[in-house]
Amino acid sequence: MHAAPALSPTSDAPGAPGSSPDGTAAGTAADVPERGVVDRVVSWYDEHARDLPWRAPDRTPWGVLVSEVMLQQTPVVRVEPAWRAWMGRWPTPADLAAAPTADVLRAWDRLGYPRRALRLQQCAQVVVDRHGGQVPDDEAALLALPGIGSYTAAAVRSFAFGRRAVVLDTNVRRVLARAVDGHALPAPAQTRAEVERAAALVPDDDASAARWAQASMELGALVCTARAPRCDECPLVSSCAWVAAGRPADLHAHRRRTQAWAGTDRQVRGRIMALLRESPVHVPEPVLDEAWSATPQRARALAGLLADGLVVEHQPHPDEPPSYALPG
DNA sequence: AAACCGGGGCC
DNA sequence: GGCCCAGGTTT
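Above: the input entities. Below: the structure tokens describing the complete assembly.
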């Protein structure tokens, strides 16, 4: 079908694992094809890593976990100030676990997908109750936490504990799709084969694996971007299969469908949540009705929020309309 | 496998 | 106005 990929895991002979950090820091060109993909990307990262607070030396595993949950579908630029405020207010799992849920949802503000905030607090409670207040470092225990899936579990293991993990997010998927497969973008759904291919590229030792995880994600975020990749700044350009093929268009373009937004239940939920976040007191139903004019959709959205535990209902008197508020 | 779940910024 | 963003959970 296709020619041998320009890059392959076997071209990445780990060489001397503990060799890099001392001497020459890749003086000029990071793009030396003779070096493995991993080495080139890690060297690039050493010079171009962003200075993000959840990467600071004084970071905690809990801080890393909080950042990863916030970063699920929310861009870094919007997460950074929210993370600083959040960690200043609730530095430990015990702090968050003890907070009123309404405060947590207000602090989440407009990061989106507020169920994440709810699950993050539940996660804090589980960490306190079942792990002595310490974030666990093994895969199964992390995956068992609310709101933590395969990506976030791997990211926490790698970024917080420096352990080997297959960290495969949208950035890494795109980097590998281009550099190895020669595709403009990865397939819409992650496949098992894709995970195994990514796993084969991860260095064997913990420290190198953790650096590769950080570096490959950063390359995807800063250089190998979805929209306008900066191939002239890429340490892999000389061996990139996608560049070699002339940067062909996306194979799956016809299958991608962007989520509708205007007029959806999600927009109505967002308006209701915004209204309740801003109200210090319970909101009577007639006031809540201002969030959306179409009654059936408004009712459906509210029912969903109640079912999710993001909103609670109060009805002091049976002959009066109920009122609504954030929980706790 | 597909649907559902926010919100903002950039092209 | 379309597209993208350090995904997870549910059906």
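Note for the figure: Chain A has two domains: 33-257, 265-325.
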